[in-house]
Amino acid sequence: MLPVYLETFGCQMNELDSELVHGQLTALGYRFVDTPEHAAVILYNTCSVREQAEQKAYSRIGIISARKRAGERLILGVIGCMAERDGIDLFRRHPQVDLMCGPGELDRLPQLIDNVRRTQQAQNAEFAEPLAIADRTALAGNRSRRSTTLSAAQDDLESLDLSRAFDPGARGAKKYSAYVRITRGCNKFCTYCVVPNTRGAEIHRPPDHIVDECKRLVDAGVLEITLLGQTVNHYRYQHGSALTVAGREAPQVGPGLSAFRTAPRAGVRCTTFADLLRRIHEELPALKRLRFITSYPRDFGNDILTVLRDSPRICRYLHAPAQSGSDRILRLMNRGYTVGEYLDFANRATSMLPDLCLAGDFIVGFPSETDADFQETCALVKRLPFKNNFIFKYSPRPGTAAFDRLKDDVPDAVKRFRNNQLLAIQSEVSRATHASWIGKRVEVLFDEVREMQKLKTPAPTTQLTIEGAESFRNQTPESNRSLRSVQCIGRTPGDLIFSMECDSLQIAAAFVGKTAYVDITSASPLFLTGTLTGSNLASSH
Ligand code: SAH
Ligand code: SF4
Ligand code: F3S
Fold first, then answer.
1. pLDDT-based confidence at 154, cuts 50/70/90?
2. Do residues 89 and 177 share a domain?
3. Looking at 268, 296, 315, which one is the last position of a domain?
4. How far apart are CA 426 and CA 422, in angstroms?
């Protein structure tokens, strides 16, 4: 039972991949540990989307490399998007790394670990033969499965998703929520983005596989499923295609953008994203919440909004990144829509679904972004009721079109200034959006207990944020601290955070994994608070 430590960086796709790796290795007899100290195999599931994300992984790799140089016998593996992007270069710069595996090859990870283990054992017996690079790497970009057929390679990956451990314990604290991938990869080639390089072409999973996976998760006690795709609303599966494996439908390459501009050919049966949502909602009445990320602001049709409107258990939550409020910058980003089209999409969505929560991402300091462009971004953020936006400073990524063709000419100080300014604007928008929920009754799914220091004298702010409370505590004299306060944290269907003070850890823990109706009594830009409505604690199972 070799102890494995696995740390995950990056997006929900990576979190899901880590869960699959966890299941795969557990089934083979590996045991997972919570810290790297006593692990024999250390795996970093990495992200390449911004340089900062890579730096985090590099600093971890540096620490483990030093342990290896000091003589500890460990297996150090880098998996995920950074392995795929950096490839063999990473081995050269970090010779202590034993193996690398890209996100499209994770079904081969056990074999790679096994190869390294055997070589290390042979080294003990002093007839060491260095392992060939090809036996230490599985990257789509070099030793490619381009030699095999798309369907065969995808079918192996598909079996990894299908063979996931339907064991609630495997998802740790989040055992009531699960991710289900509907689309791998991305074809959009936004000029700043590494994802099409690291995750490969857009591949859509057959609807039957997706529904089956959802069913098994619900049978295992999952209450909330989040469907994953880089542009999730572009899901489209064409039935009756030639690409079937052993008589079963196989994963399929996504259609080009033009598919959304023209009607399907006569006689072709398609499962669209709207169809898929409707089907999961209808076939899984025990599923409490169905959500999906990330929505692409183009081609988000009224057919999808109608399904949301008519399906009470589909969450009215859209994470639909706008990225910029300037048409000129959107064009340079190759996003494929204008600000006007984004507004049309957002206004259609909020008018058809009045309780919708809208969220997104913005990039500031994209090459050539002027102050006027940035002001247009600020105006867009002010114009819509975003519950939150993730705001990123542009990070040039090798291998992307923007890196090759556009000069990273906005100074870092300007990027930082714009980042802070947009955060401040978003904070005001979030305050108003959250405040609009005061007086409403909503259902909350509780999933976490937090303990915080409580102050005898109230903090001098009108509303403490969770982060605010933490930093205030640090500056608070001992005399102003009293007992710890216990909060049970949950989320509304629109993904707003709800925090409820509880008398004890036991009481708070009893809420985890349950839903309850609450009346919202106050709000901050980050979360809502309120009271339970009578004894409505709904049982989850
Ligand atoms: N598929 C999703 C986004 C995936 S990446 C979509 O298209 O919306 C998550 C976010 O990271 C992006 O929305 C973008 O805002 C940000 N991002 C991606 N590449 C970046 C880069 N090079 N620099 C800064 N932010 C970046
Ligand atoms: Fe990246 Fe654009 Fe694809 Fe999103 S849609 S993953 S930003 S290329
Ligand atoms: Fe990062 Fe790869 Fe996700 S680059 S954002 S982990 S798809």
1. low
2. no
3. 315
4. 6
